[in-house]
Predict the structure.
Amino acid sequence: SDRRPAIRRHVMNGLSGLFTAWQLFLRKPGAISGLDNTVDTAKFSFRAAFYAFPFYWLMVGIGPEAVASTRGLLQTTLIHAVFYFLIWTMWPLVMWHLSRLVNKRDRFFRYLAAYNWSMVIQAAIWLASSAIILGFGLTGSAARMTTVLTICIVVLYHIHILREGLELGVMPAAALAGFKLILYQILLGTHQAALLQPPSP
């Protein structure tokens, strides 16, 4: 059978999700309405992992861990794969429970769809930051300032998605975004430690 219409529909839905994420990044009023608050919409949004993968792989290639890693190719690839899987599953699982604590479970699926598609935009932002640091040979305070600026942009973006997707106030949204950042930093630190740990004999 001809699968082209189904493939075309999936591509268009993916582009629509990315467009909504971009509109949210630009703070366009009503942008969140581009996503339905349904389980199917949330499930489909995990396809964003495929869109974000090229950005992630490029960051892996130009990041300091690519040079400093003591692991072999197979071990390094496995560590990166596990890290990428956790990036896409850890926060949705945590947020599923937190959404009930803040009494916003009924809006969770729209938020999750927006968050997942925003991960592609976030990956592009992080890649651009890495490219700037590498391209301009930034070190020391200049490199740290660039990283801090990138973190601020990404966190503010997530706060906006939390506010629009879950209809939260500024402080609850900021608290959740901050908590997510802490979890991500712990995961990132574990990932880097695994790459730099001497391989087993």
